[in-house]
Predict the 3D structure of the following.
Amino acid sequence: MTDVHAKTDAHATTDAYAMTDVRHARQLHLMRAASALGITVQDRMPELGVDLVVYRHGAKSVPVLEGRYDHDLRARDFFLTEDKHTTKLLLREAGFATPRGFVFAFTDTTRSEGDNEAAEEADEEADDDLPRLTAFAAEAFAALSADPTSTDPAFTDPASTAPASIAPVVAKPRAGMRGDAVRMGLDTAAAVVDHIAGRRHLFRSWIVEEQVEGRDLRLQLVDGELVAACVREPASVTGDGRTPLAELIERHRTAVAAANPDNRLVVDAETQDLLAAQGLGLDDVPTPDRVVRLKRTANLAKGGVAVDVTDGLHPDFGPWAASVAKLFGTRILAIDALCAAPHEPPTAGATILEVNTAPEWVHHTFSREGTHDIATHILRSWFDL
């Protein structure tokens, strides 16, 4: 059942703004921090049309693309961590908890324009993919969705014919960025098939894994030191008993976009499904203090918010995170994990979802309850200041 094909999806590894004349927020933070530190900033964007800046201090120069890809980032580490399945295997071998999961890959037939034979072959193989995906989803869902810790008679009484408790699963691209195409709460094998099949044109390889509950924790490291931590919360609004839901959503949309223009809350099919499950419509007025969920995942590009927990983080997370960083050999790294509570030690059930060697870190500059100057940490690391 496990497809060990390690090819990374080209769509997923390319930044949405790559090779355009868009200035990234990460780069702006680095440029401002460099000026404050007396580091020379050479902006190559006007002549090259890409967000490339060269930072110089003394005899050393550091070219940085999009504020994310720097001279220290090795291709091995970047592509290794882009492949979420391989990353999980490496982490598990090192003794870290990761979600159980299985991988699936669509047929990858390269065709040339005008090559009718290749086109026919591709169409035939594409026709074979749906039954193969259906069989895979059924097997993966059966293996992952039954909860063996349940007190349900289906587990505690071997003679019982009662149906087992069903735990939802997660489907996500094997390689992806910004939470694209990640879907939680899939409670049937058919739902897994529908989600993946509907996005096969975007991603070739997929992971179906168990849905682990907990707080969505992001840990930012520079030179192996944990410099910031936040929990990410899915988009939601709180009722006041007077304001229609549509207006509450618009207020939240405006607030998160003001802090981060890349954070765009859209009322899509996922939002409509969640509202329906909560018995609400856009014209309804939620009761005072009622929290209304708008997204399943804590995605900071889709209306989610970051809440700083650095000061309250359990001290054991520092060495725990440093041990993870040693596996990848890069100066700048972020860890996405689920935990029971940030103030509890990682041994209390912290599960690593993924590791990022070219992480997004701007959210630490506007997170609620506290902010951090990550750009200065990074520049000091590059130039040993």
Confidence is low (pLDDT under 50) at residues 2-20, 109-116, 149-163. The chain is about 35% helix and 20% strand. Residues 116-145 form the longest helix (30 residues).
